[in-house]
Amino acid sequence: MSIESKSWEASNQAKQFVKNNIVLDFIAGPWGLGWLEEPQLHEYFGRAIETGITGASITLAFGDNRLSNLINEHRIWRRVISEQPEKYRFIHSADDIRIAQEKNQYAIIWNSQSAEVLDGNPENMLTLRELGVGTMLLAYNDRYRAADGCIIPLHKEDGGLSAYGKEIIDAMHKYGMVLDLSHCSEKTCLDATAYTQEKWAGKPVVYTHSVPRGLHPECYRNISDEQIKACAATGGVICPTFTEWMLDPIFPDDIEPIHCANLIDYVVQLVGIDHCGIASDDMFTTSAVEGLARSKPDIYNDNGFMFAAFDKGAAGCGEFAKIIPAFVDCLFEKGYSEEDVAKVLGGNMMRVFDQVWI
Protein backbone atom coordinates (compact mmCIF):
# COMPACT_ATOMS: atom_id res chain seq x y z
CA MET A 1 0.00 0.00 0.00
CA SER A 2 1.03 3.63 0.30
CA ILE A 3 4.04 3.45 2.59
CA GLU A 4 5.52 0.65 0.50
CA SER A 5 4.39 1.94 -2.90
CA LYS A 6 6.65 3.38 -5.56
CA SER A 7 7.03 7.08 -6.31
CA TRP A 8 6.58 7.60 -10.06
CA GLU A 9 8.48 10.16 -12.10
CA ALA A 10 6.41 12.94 -13.66
CA SER A 11 6.91 16.01 -15.79
CA ASN A 12 7.15 19.45 -14.23
CA GLN A 13 4.00 20.37 -16.17
CA ALA A 14 2.03 17.57 -14.50
CA LYS A 15 3.42 18.37 -11.06
CA GLN A 16 2.41 22.02 -11.39
CA PHE A 17 -0.99 21.08 -12.81
CA VAL A 18 -1.74 19.03 -9.69
CA LYS A 19 -0.78 21.96 -7.48
CA ASN A 20 -2.93 24.39 -9.50
CA ASN A 21 -6.15 22.35 -9.45
CA ILE A 22 -8.51 20.82 -6.93
CA VAL A 23 -7.50 17.16 -6.50
CA LEU A 24 -9.71 14.91 -4.36
CA ASP A 25 -9.02 11.38 -3.11
CA PHE A 26 -10.94 8.71 -1.19
CA ILE A 27 -9.07 7.04 1.70
CA ALA A 28 -10.20 3.82 3.36
CA GLY A 29 -7.77 4.03 6.28
CA PRO A 30 -9.85 4.38 9.45
CA TRP A 31 -8.32 4.94 12.86
CA GLY A 32 -7.40 1.69 14.60
CA LEU A 33 -7.33 -0.27 11.34
CA GLY A 34 -5.58 1.98 8.82
CA TRP A 35 -3.39 3.98 11.21
CA LEU A 36 -2.50 3.92 14.90
CA GLU A 37 0.50 6.22 15.30
CA GLU A 38 0.02 9.98 15.07
CA PRO A 39 3.30 10.71 13.19
CA GLN A 40 2.22 8.30 10.46
CA LEU A 41 -0.88 10.39 9.82
CA HIS A 42 0.96 13.70 9.64
CA GLU A 43 3.68 12.25 7.39
CA TYR A 44 1.10 10.80 5.01
CA PHE A 45 -0.90 14.00 4.71
CA GLY A 46 2.31 16.01 4.60
CA ARG A 47 3.28 14.20 1.38
CA ALA A 48 -0.19 14.89 0.00
CA ILE A 49 0.00 18.62 0.80
CA GLU A 50 3.49 18.90 -0.70
CA THR A 51 2.29 17.23 -3.92
CA GLY A 52 -0.76 19.47 -4.16
CA ILE A 53 -3.52 17.03 -3.21
CA THR A 54 -6.43 19.18 -2.01
CA GLY A 55 -8.01 16.58 0.28
CA ALA A 56 -9.94 13.35 0.62
CA SER A 57 -13.07 11.64 1.83
CA ILE A 58 -11.98 9.64 4.88
CA THR A 59 -13.77 6.72 6.50
CA LEU A 60 -15.19 6.95 10.01
CA ALA A 61 -16.55 4.13 12.21
CA PHE A 62 -15.62 1.27 9.94
CA GLY A 63 -16.56 -2.12 11.42
CA ASP A 64 -18.40 -0.70 14.45
CA ASN A 65 -21.42 0.91 12.87
CA ARG A 66 -22.81 2.82 15.83
CA LEU A 67 -23.31 6.55 15.97
CA SER A 68 -21.46 6.71 19.28
CA ASN A 69 -18.41 5.05 17.70
CA LEU A 70 -18.45 7.43 14.75
CA ILE A 71 -18.53 10.39 17.14
CA ASN A 72 -15.65 8.92 19.17
CA GLU A 73 -13.49 8.36 16.09
CA HIS A 74 -14.34 11.86 14.91
CA ARG A 75 -12.93 13.20 18.19
CA ILE A 76 -9.75 11.14 17.83
CA TRP A 77 -9.10 12.44 14.32
CA ARG A 78 -9.78 16.03 15.37
CA ARG A 79 -7.49 15.71 18.39
CA VAL A 80 -4.60 14.42 16.28
CA ILE A 81 -5.13 16.94 13.50
CA SER A 82 -5.38 19.79 16.03
CA GLU A 83 -1.65 19.25 16.70
CA GLN A 84 -0.99 20.94 13.33
CA PRO A 85 -4.20 22.93 12.74
CA GLU A 86 -2.72 25.23 10.11
CA LYS A 87 -2.31 22.27 7.73
CA TYR A 88 -5.92 21.05 7.71
CA ARG A 89 -9.46 22.23 7.08
CA PHE A 90 -12.60 20.33 8.08
CA ILE A 91 -15.12 20.49 5.26
CA HIS A 92 -18.82 21.38 5.52
CA SER A 93 -19.32 22.98 2.10
CA ALA A 94 -17.78 22.95 -1.35
CA ASP A 95 -16.49 26.46 -0.68
CA ASP A 96 -14.51 25.07 2.27
CA ILE A 97 -12.66 22.86 -0.23
CA ARG A 98 -11.91 25.88 -2.40
CA ILE A 99 -10.52 27.70 0.64
CA ALA A 100 -8.35 24.69 1.50
CA GLN A 101 -6.99 24.74 -2.06
CA GLU A 102 -6.18 28.45 -1.82
CA LYS A 103 -4.47 28.10 1.57
CA ASN A 104 -2.60 24.89 0.69
CA GLN A 105 -4.43 23.04 3.47
CA TYR A 106 -5.61 19.44 3.40
CA ALA A 107 -9.40 19.16 3.14
CA ILE A 108 -10.94 16.56 5.46
CA ILE A 109 -14.28 15.22 4.14
CA TRP A 110 -15.83 12.51 6.28
CA ASN A 111 -17.43 9.38 4.82
CA SER A 112 -19.46 6.62 6.45
CA GLN A 113 -19.31 3.25 4.71
CA SER A 114 -22.61 2.13 6.23
CA ALA A 115 -25.97 3.72 7.00
CA GLU A 116 -26.07 1.63 10.18
CA VAL A 117 -24.40 4.56 11.98
CA LEU A 118 -27.84 6.22 11.98
CA ASP A 119 -28.85 3.77 14.72
CA GLY A 120 -32.14 3.09 12.97
CA ASN A 121 -33.20 6.74 12.84
CA PRO A 122 -32.82 8.55 9.49
CA GLU A 123 -33.16 11.88 11.29
CA ASN A 124 -29.69 11.29 12.75
CA MET A 125 -28.54 12.35 9.28
CA LEU A 126 -28.65 15.90 10.64
CA THR A 127 -26.10 15.01 13.33
CA LEU A 128 -23.79 13.50 10.75
CA ARG A 129 -23.99 16.55 8.52
CA GLU A 130 -23.19 18.80 11.49
CA LEU A 131 -20.08 16.66 12.09
CA GLY A 132 -19.05 17.17 8.48
CA VAL A 133 -19.94 13.72 7.12
CA GLY A 134 -20.49 14.45 3.44
CA THR A 135 -20.93 11.03 1.80
CA MET A 136 -22.50 7.77 2.95
CA LEU A 137 -22.85 4.20 1.70
CA LEU A 138 -26.06 2.24 2.19
CA ALA A 139 -24.25 -1.07 2.72
CA TYR A 140 -20.70 -2.39 2.97
CA ASN A 141 -20.49 -5.80 1.24
CA ASP A 142 -22.94 -7.55 3.60
CA ARG A 143 -26.72 -7.37 4.20
CA TYR A 144 -27.88 -4.39 6.25
CA ARG A 145 -31.24 -2.92 7.16
CA ALA A 146 -31.01 -0.39 4.34
CA ALA A 147 -29.81 -2.61 1.52
CA ASP A 148 -27.70 -5.54 0.34
CA GLY A 149 -23.99 -5.25 -0.30
CA CYS A 150 -21.97 -6.71 -3.16
CA ILE A 151 -21.07 -9.98 -1.41
CA ILE A 152 -24.69 -11.03 -0.86
CA PRO A 153 -25.27 -12.25 -4.46
CA LEU A 154 -22.40 -14.73 -3.96
CA HIS A 155 -24.47 -16.56 -1.33
CA LYS A 156 -28.16 -15.71 -1.68
CA GLU A 157 -30.72 -13.75 -3.65
CA ASP A 158 -29.93 -10.06 -4.00
CA GLY A 159 -32.65 -8.20 -2.10
CA GLY A 160 -31.58 -4.76 -3.25
CA LEU A 161 -32.91 -1.65 -1.54
CA SER A 162 -35.29 -2.01 1.43
CA ALA A 163 -38.16 0.23 2.46
CA TYR A 164 -35.95 1.52 5.27
CA GLY A 165 -33.26 2.19 2.71
CA LYS A 166 -35.67 4.45 0.84
CA GLU A 167 -36.24 6.39 4.06
CA ILE A 168 -32.49 6.84 4.37
CA ILE A 169 -32.20 8.05 0.77
CA ASP A 170 -35.00 10.54 1.46
CA ALA A 171 -33.11 11.87 4.49
CA MET A 172 -29.82 12.02 2.56
CA HIS A 173 -31.27 14.07 -0.27
CA LYS A 174 -33.33 16.21 2.10
CA TYR A 175 -30.42 17.14 4.38
CA GLY A 176 -27.61 17.34 1.86
CA MET A 177 -25.71 14.06 2.11
CA VAL A 178 -24.17 12.54 -1.03
CA LEU A 179 -25.40 9.00 -1.68
CA ASP A 180 -22.40 6.74 -2.31
CA LEU A 181 -23.18 3.37 -3.93
CA SER A 182 -19.72 1.81 -3.60
CA HIS A 183 -19.74 -1.71 -2.08
CA CYS A 184 -23.49 -2.13 -2.70
CA SER A 185 -24.97 -4.98 -4.71
CA GLU A 186 -25.94 -4.33 -8.31
CA LYS A 187 -29.64 -4.50 -7.51
CA THR A 188 -29.21 -2.10 -4.60
CA CYS A 189 -27.40 0.35 -6.87
CA LEU A 190 -29.98 0.18 -9.63
CA ASP A 191 -32.86 0.39 -7.14
CA ALA A 192 -31.27 3.40 -5.44
CA THR A 193 -30.56 5.30 -8.65
CA ALA A 194 -34.08 4.59 -9.96
CA TYR A 195 -35.64 5.74 -6.67
CA THR A 196 -33.53 8.88 -6.67
CA GLN A 197 -34.50 9.76 -10.23
CA GLU A 198 -38.17 9.07 -9.51
CA LYS A 199 -38.48 11.03 -6.25
CA TRP A 200 -35.42 13.30 -6.18
CA ALA A 201 -34.84 14.29 -9.79
CA GLY A 202 -31.72 16.40 -10.15
CA LYS A 203 -29.94 14.84 -7.16
CA PRO A 204 -26.79 13.01 -8.30
CA VAL A 205 -25.43 9.82 -6.74
CA VAL A 206 -21.80 8.70 -6.84
CA TYR A 207 -19.41 5.78 -6.63
CA THR A 208 -16.47 7.14 -4.61
CA HIS A 209 -14.28 4.03 -5.09
CA SER A 210 -15.42 1.42 -7.60
CA VAL A 211 -13.67 -0.37 -10.49
CA PRO A 212 -15.51 -0.81 -13.82
CA ARG A 213 -16.35 -4.47 -14.36
CA GLY A 214 -16.20 -4.07 -18.13
CA LEU A 215 -12.44 -3.55 -17.85
CA HIS A 216 -11.79 -5.87 -14.89
CA PRO A 217 -14.52 -8.54 -14.79
CA GLU A 218 -13.22 -10.93 -12.14
CA CYS A 219 -13.89 -9.13 -8.86
CA TYR A 220 -17.39 -9.31 -7.39
CA ARG A 221 -17.06 -5.74 -6.08
CA ASN A 222 -16.61 -4.14 -9.50
CA ILE A 223 -19.55 -2.34 -11.08
CA SER A 224 -21.31 -3.04 -14.37
CA ASP A 225 -21.74 -0.75 -17.35
CA GLU A 226 -25.44 -0.55 -16.46
CA GLN A 227 -24.58 0.75 -12.98
CA ILE A 228 -22.17 3.30 -14.43
CA LYS A 229 -24.74 4.54 -16.93
CA ALA A 230 -27.49 4.74 -14.29
CA CYS A 231 -25.22 6.78 -12.03
CA ALA A 232 -24.30 9.15 -14.84
CA ALA A 233 -27.98 9.58 -15.71
CA THR A 234 -28.51 11.18 -12.29
CA GLY A 235 -25.67 13.62 -13.02
CA GLY A 236 -23.39 11.58 -10.78
CA VAL A 237 -19.71 10.68 -10.80
CA ILE A 238 -17.90 7.33 -10.88
CA CYS A 239 -14.43 7.28 -9.27
CA PRO A 240 -12.43 4.19 -10.25
CA THR A 241 -9.97 3.05 -7.61
CA PHE A 242 -6.60 1.50 -8.35
CA THR A 243 -6.61 -1.05 -5.54
CA GLU A 244 -4.72 -4.02 -6.96
CA TRP A 245 -6.70 -6.96 -5.59
CA MET A 246 -9.82 -5.67 -7.39
CA LEU A 247 -8.02 -5.74 -10.74
CA ASP A 248 -7.44 -8.91 -12.76
CA PRO A 249 -3.66 -8.97 -13.22
CA ILE A 250 -0.99 -8.97 -10.55
CA PHE A 251 1.45 -6.14 -11.18
CA PRO A 252 5.11 -6.89 -10.41
CA ASP A 253 6.07 -3.21 -10.10
CA ASP A 254 3.10 -1.71 -8.25
CA ILE A 255 0.01 -0.23 -9.84
CA GLU A 256 1.31 1.90 -12.70
CA PRO A 257 -0.04 5.34 -13.66
CA ILE A 258 -1.15 4.00 -17.05
CA HIS A 259 -3.37 1.43 -15.31
CA CYS A 260 -5.11 4.27 -13.49
CA ALA A 261 -5.46 6.22 -16.73
CA ASN A 262 -7.00 3.19 -18.45
CA LEU A 263 -9.64 2.96 -15.71
CA ILE A 264 -10.56 6.59 -16.27
CA ASP A 265 -10.59 6.22 -20.04
CA TYR A 266 -13.00 3.29 -19.82
CA VAL A 267 -15.55 5.29 -17.82
CA VAL A 268 -15.14 8.39 -19.96
CA GLN A 269 -15.70 6.43 -23.18
CA LEU A 270 -18.87 4.95 -21.64
CA VAL A 271 -20.55 8.02 -20.10
CA GLY A 272 -18.45 11.09 -20.88
CA ILE A 273 -15.88 13.27 -19.18
CA ASP A 274 -18.38 14.96 -16.82
CA HIS A 275 -19.04 11.76 -14.89
CA CYS A 276 -15.60 10.48 -13.92
CA GLY A 277 -13.35 11.02 -10.89
CA ILE A 278 -10.48 9.10 -9.31
CA ALA A 279 -9.72 7.51 -5.92
CA SER A 280 -6.95 5.52 -4.28
CA ASP A 281 -9.01 3.72 -1.58
CA ASP A 282 -5.72 3.68 0.32
CA MET A 283 -5.17 1.93 3.66
CA PHE A 284 -1.69 3.31 4.54
CA THR A 285 0.06 -0.09 4.78
CA THR A 286 -0.22 -3.59 3.31
CA SER A 287 -0.41 -5.12 6.78
CA ALA A 288 -3.37 -2.89 7.59
CA VAL A 289 -5.27 -4.13 4.53
CA GLU A 290 -4.75 -7.80 5.30
CA GLY A 291 -5.30 -7.30 9.00
CA LEU A 292 -8.56 -5.50 8.35
CA ALA A 293 -9.88 -8.19 6.02
CA ARG A 294 -8.90 -11.08 8.27
CA SER A 295 -10.43 -9.38 11.31
CA LYS A 296 -13.82 -9.05 9.57
CA PRO A 297 -14.56 -12.50 8.11
CA ASP A 298 -18.31 -11.92 7.90
CA ILE A 299 -18.16 -8.81 5.74
CA TYR A 300 -15.38 -10.28 3.58
CA ASN A 301 -17.06 -13.65 3.05
CA ASP A 302 -16.22 -13.72 -0.65
CA ASN A 303 -15.34 -17.40 -1.06
CA GLY A 304 -11.67 -16.60 -0.61
CA PHE A 305 -11.34 -14.20 -3.55
CA MET A 306 -9.57 -11.40 -1.69
CA PHE A 307 -7.19 -13.61 0.26
CA ALA A 308 -6.29 -15.54 -2.89
CA ALA A 309 -5.39 -12.24 -4.55
CA PHE A 310 -3.32 -11.23 -1.51
CA ASP A 311 -1.51 -14.57 -1.60
CA LYS A 312 -0.59 -13.93 -5.24
CA GLY A 313 0.84 -10.57 -4.31
CA ALA A 314 -2.05 -8.23 -5.13
CA ALA A 315 -1.87 -5.99 -2.08
CA GLY A 316 -0.74 -2.83 -3.85
CA CYS A 317 -2.42 0.54 -4.08
CA GLY A 318 -0.57 3.57 -5.35
CA GLU A 319 -0.52 6.40 -2.84
CA PHE A 320 -2.09 9.51 -4.38
CA ALA A 321 0.88 11.74 -3.63
CA LYS A 322 3.26 9.28 -5.28
CA ILE A 323 1.28 8.48 -8.42
CA ILE A 324 -1.11 11.31 -9.36
CA PRO A 325 1.35 13.60 -11.19
CA ALA A 326 2.49 10.69 -13.37
CA PHE A 327 -1.17 9.72 -13.87
CA VAL A 328 -1.80 13.26 -15.15
CA ASP A 329 1.01 12.81 -17.66
CA CYS A 330 -0.70 9.62 -18.88
CA LEU A 331 -4.01 11.43 -19.42
CA PHE A 332 -2.27 14.19 -21.36
CA GLU A 333 -0.54 11.56 -23.49
CA LYS A 334 -3.95 10.00 -24.20
CA GLY A 335 -5.11 13.34 -25.58
CA TYR A 336 -7.13 14.66 -22.64
CA SER A 337 -7.24 18.45 -22.40
CA GLU A 338 -6.36 20.39 -19.26
CA GLU A 339 -10.07 21.08 -18.73
CA ASP A 340 -10.83 17.35 -18.98
CA VAL A 341 -8.09 16.38 -16.53
CA ALA A 342 -9.20 19.03 -14.03
CA LYS A 343 -12.71 17.53 -14.09
CA VAL A 344 -11.36 14.04 -13.37
CA LEU A 345 -9.05 15.17 -10.56
CA GLY A 346 -11.78 16.93 -8.62
CA GLY A 347 -13.93 19.21 -10.72
CA ASN A 348 -16.71 16.68 -11.28
CA MET A 349 -16.96 15.80 -7.59
CA MET A 350 -16.99 19.52 -6.76
CA ARG A 351 -20.01 19.92 -9.03
CA VAL A 352 -21.80 17.18 -7.09
CA PHE A 353 -20.87 18.74 -3.74
CA ASP A 354 -22.16 22.11 -4.95
CA GLN A 355 -25.44 20.49 -5.95
CA VAL A 356 -26.00 18.32 -2.89
CA TRP A 357 -24.43 19.86 0.22
CA ILE A 358 -26.65 22.43 1.92
Describe the model.
The strands form 2 sheets. Strands 1, 2, 3, 4, 5 and 6 form a 6-stranded parallel beta sheet that branches. This protein is globular. The chain has a single domain, classed as Alpha-Beta Barrel (TIM Barrel), CATH 3.20.20. It is an alpha/beta fold and 358 residues long. It has helices at 12-20, 38-51, 67-81, 94-103, 125-131, 163-175, 186-199, 225-233, 257-271, 286-295, 305-311, 320-333, 338-356, and strands at 24-27, 55-60, 88-90, 106-112, 133-137, 178-180, 206-207, 237-238. Helix 5 (125-131) links the parallel strand 4 (106-112) and strand 5.
Keyword list:
two-stranded parallel ribbon, 44% helix, 6-stranded parallel beta sheet, TIM Barrel, alpha/beta, single chain, 358 residues, 13 helices
Task: Describe the SSE topology.
Layout: H1 12-20, E1 24-27, H2 38-51, E2 55-60, H3 67-81, E3 88-90, H4 94-103, E4 106-112, H5 125-131, E5 133-137, H6 163-175, E6 178-180, H7 186-199, E7 206-207, H8 225-233, E8 237-238, H9 257-271, H10 286-295, H11 305-311, H12 320-333, H13 338-356
Parallel strand pairs: 1-2, 2-4, 3-4, 4-5, 5-6, 7-8
Count of folded domains: 1
CATH class: Alpha Beta
Total strand count, please?
8
Largest sheet: 6 strands, parallel
Q: Distance N terminus to C terminus?
A: 35 Å
Per CATH, the architecture is: Alpha-Beta Barrel
The shape is globular
Derived from helix and strand composition plus strand pairing, the structural class reads alpha/beta
